[in-house]
Amino acid sequence: MNISWIAWVFLSVFAALLALIGFMLVSLGRRGDERSRLIKTRAMSVTFIWTVLILLAETVRTMVGKDAETNPLLILTAVSFIYFVALLAYKRKYGDLG
To answer: I need a labelling partner for 53 at 20 to 30 A (CA). Which of 1, 2, 10, 77 fits?
Structure first.
């Protein structure tokens, strides 16, 4: 398997984001109150809005460009980063991160 170093960087960043998201969800799940449900719901809604905007931008970009290809790993990494930042922001705002 001959994967370039850029693919390894994206895979490692994606794996790190998944680990951080998993850690945040486990720490929110331990509490089990209404605030943790609110934090997850708000983070998911913000992520959904940004995902729709990213996909719309990619659709316009592929319609304009003839050789424009979409890298799904890049989009998945971007959406994971957005979800992690939203979880972190809402946990800080409504949770116990201070």
So the answer is: 10
